[in-house]
Amino acid sequence: MKLANLGIVIAPFVLALLITIYTMDNIITSWIAYGLWLAIVCSAFISTNFILLHLRGKKISTRYAQKMLSFRIAAFVTSYNEDPSMVKGTLLSVKLALGDLGDVYLLDDSTKKEIVEDLRSFCEKNGIFYIHREDRKGYKAGAINNALKLIGDQYDLVAIFDSDQRPVRTFFREVIPYFYDPSIAFVQIPQRYTEKYSGISLGAAYQQKPFLRVIMRGRSYRSAFSLGSGTVFRINALKEVGFFPEYSITEDAAVSIELHSKGWRSLYIDENLIWYGEAPPDLASYLTQQARWALGYLQLTGRLLKSSLKPSQFFDYFAGTLYWLKEGPLTVFEILAPMVFLITGLPIVRMDPLLYVLLYVPYLSISIALFIYSIRGKDEYGLKGFLYHQAVEYIAFPSIVGAFVSWFLRRRVPFKVTPKGGAAHQVKSVILHIAILALLILSIVKGIVWLFSVKETSLIYSIAINIFWALYHTLFLFLGIVLSLTRLAIEPYTEVIKGEAILEGLKEKPSTY
Amino acid sequence: MASTTLSIIEEINNAVKSSIIKRITIIEEINDAVKDSIIKRITILGTKGGIGKSTLAFMLSKALASRGKSVMFIEGDLTNTISSTIGIKGDGLITNIVDDKDPYDSLLKIPFGSGSITVLKLFGNRERFLKDIERISKEPDLKEKFRIKYSEILREGYDIYLFDPYASCIDSKEFKELESAVFRSSVGSYDETRIYVSTISRTNIESTLDLYRKIENSPERRGIPLAMIFNMVPDASETYVRREAERIQSLGIPIILIISLREDLLAFSDDPVKMPIIDEIEFLAKVILSRQISAYGVVSSKDLLEKALRVGAFTIIQGFYDRHKTDKIISLVKKASSRGREVVLVSTREDLADLLKRTGIKPLEIRVTRRFMEEMLKTSKLEDVLRLAHSLSNDIIFEIQSLTQPLLIIYSAEDLAPPPKNPDYKILRDEFWNAVINSLRSKHDLSILLVCKDSEDCAGAEKYADHRII
């Protein structure tokens, strides 16, 4: 590991520790204080990274005209027990986009016999190669590695699509020219959530925007990582790193670290090249997705620390780790701190409340304003987006904490694909949130009663500040719960008969290995 | 009207005199004079039979009808080729009136393309012709009857009246006057243009020019001359005809069209209905229907294609993406690649690349990215348009820098130009094309071919174009 990278890792923890010691009031609550300060320091780290990436992203020039290159392309669509009609639609979309540039492969790990048969015969009919595995070894990474070995040296590039993300017709023509630079290992395009039929899916879509419009843009040509779908890889680059690592359930980020460590570059082009993409339809699938992403990212920590990434690249990746830390365990401390103070009266941080207000309020408002400003103009986000985004993050935090627990226990949670389709909105899933909400309201009530019983000015400030935070958390938690239970007008899934008709004219190719 | 037309002709004269097929100068006054919506009377004139005058006239009717116009083709040629081919049984309007027969026997409407052609057989057979004309012009009863019937027919409402008169009909001054008077009173406001047809024989050229001077210098003439056509020009005589054409340009004819002798068309010589419409006539039809009539100078498709390949040349190909257009692009591309020149295709689409590949030519494809189009769509400021134009041409230059004198085709230009949502889009387009074309030409030795749907899409670019192929 590089010394500079070590410094980046240690810095927030040490800084938070120093502030904790400096502001310590009560040894019993000092652990909450540390969590709270770490949350603030991590936020500052993440915000700094965000602003830097925003500035960098603005500087990256995009090309307006590019030479088409003739590469042979394999397009992989991965599936596992998903709705076959959705998979078929995606296959046709990929096939149409690919045209005569290469071949489409379905990597089907489905275990349901009827799905396997249905998809196999569909592929045979439509000139799509069908690859099925029984064992699911290595999950998605395993499926891709297996297929890459099967196709041998027939292709130069491999495109990977999830079965719920459909490329536009010009996808390959837009993406391929970027491979003129031999140091480019992969090109990533943004994922898109076009199918948003519930409050939670809308929130999930908003949550993606800062990441896709600012973070990934700024990371282009430096540390942009594969998002697992809508990525086109140079097969030779993958060969060099031994294909996809199977140790992480987010093989996309894992392989990106491997490639970046070897000096390969990656590119993120922020263009709408996906015309159909399903957002997590309901709370359960959203939580599963968030937990999986968090755990997958955490599983990379060891590899990340040992990597020989450049400090700038490392900082970008590590900001990702801090994000999950902040959205999971540290959120617990943020919620806990005002609650404990207002209910038990135990002081957590010793600090001049006025100084706190003077420092923290501008910091908080400036960071929120900058955050919204950075995304402005690139997509519709604004205040509404910010509220939705915060709300879903408050809903996700217990699941992310769960992911941390699994990681500490070295538990590799069974790979569970985000369930797609259907919308089971269960109050059951938000019981924990409702309980926390109740506690927050209780602490606010207690706090207000307390506020009117004290005379000491500094204590009044402290109580007021904590009531503010409790209210802040209450607001977003409440919004989150409402979102989780909101169902928007659900449009039935439409079959892709038109696409099939278009494909009829295409040349039939042998299928199934 | 007459005085403006005169000054227009003078202006054209000056423009054409100073430059032979150099820049295409758009004469705004003519634009205003000839508008698409206004009814047109086109007279096809010639001094000699058998020079393909009727064939071309009818072909022009077809080209206009295929563009949705309802055309009345008035056949005044004594051979009555068209009338008999399409099956008109009557003896001709004049003879029918004299014989007191139903004049509608001499009229037949045939649908063509999205429009229609109504053929009116004007005269009877040769023996009756002179006598009938004499009587119609002299006898008041017949004159009145002709007035009523002819007017009735004209009033049916046509977009274009194409008059193909027999040469000596012009000499029968009385009938000519009668016909024009009835026409004027029946049709009301209309634009009149004349097309002269000649072969390449010295005497024919001279007699046609005499006719031209006689008509165009006559104080009673209405409208303007539109074109002089040299028909059936053998390849060997092309240089000679070109010299003649350039000499004639000083007369101020907007278009001098050189139509090559087409062996393949001779098979259709007896059947003008089935004869395909040649490019040159398509061109003429498009000019007639366009809102602008420019001084094109000497035009021959062959010639334009050749000029487009010159290094440094900038040519515009306009018109809907039909077979004619792609055929022209393909023949140009074939010509260029047979001379070892690289063909570069700048586009947002794949159709032309696919088409070229099918004909065995693999162009270097340069794709204009989505980002470009998105930014262009958002832009309404001139400085942003110019920035985009310069970046686009720089990116194109970057891709072609290693090529020697490539033929650069900018296909589907309408996708690249500033969109028409902006009220100033014409100015923006003008500046955009100016920046793109000049930047490309100044940085690399190449021939540029800009392919666009209609003149609106390439608005502004026309000014800088060395040639335009429609």
Write a compact overview of the structure shown.
The complex is a heterodimer of chains A (513) and B (470). Chain A has 513 residues and is an alpha/beta fold.
Q: According to CATH, what is the topology of the largest domain in chain A? A: Spore Coat Polysaccharide Biosynthesis Protein SpsA, Chain A
Q: Under CATH, the topology of the largest domain in chain B is which?
A: Rossmann fold
| Spatial gap, N to C terminus of chain B | 29 Å
Number of domains of chain A: 2
Assign the CATH superfamily of the largest domain in chain B. Answer: P-loop containing nucleotide triphosphate hydrolases
- The side-by-side strand order for the widest beta sheet of chain A comes to 4-3-2-5-8-7-9
Q: Beta fraction of the residues of chain B?
A: 15-25%
Largest interface, counted by CB within 8 Å of the partner chain's CB: A-B, 15 and 19 residues
Q: Summarize the biggest pleated sheet of chain A.
A: 7 strands, mixed
How are the strands of the largest sheet of chain B arranged? Answer: 4-5-3-6-2-7-8-9-11
What is the chains' assembly state? Answer: heterodimer
Uncertain stretches of 5 or more adjacent residues of chain A: 414-425, 492-513
Keywords:
heterodimer, A: 513 residues, alpha/beta, Spore Coat Polysaccharide Biosynthesis Protein SpsA, Chain A, 2 domains, seven-stranded mixed β-sheet, two-stranded antiparallel sheet, 18 helices, 58% helix, disordered C terminus, B: 470 residues, Rossmann fold, nine-stranded mixed β-sheet, 19 helices, 17 strands, elongated
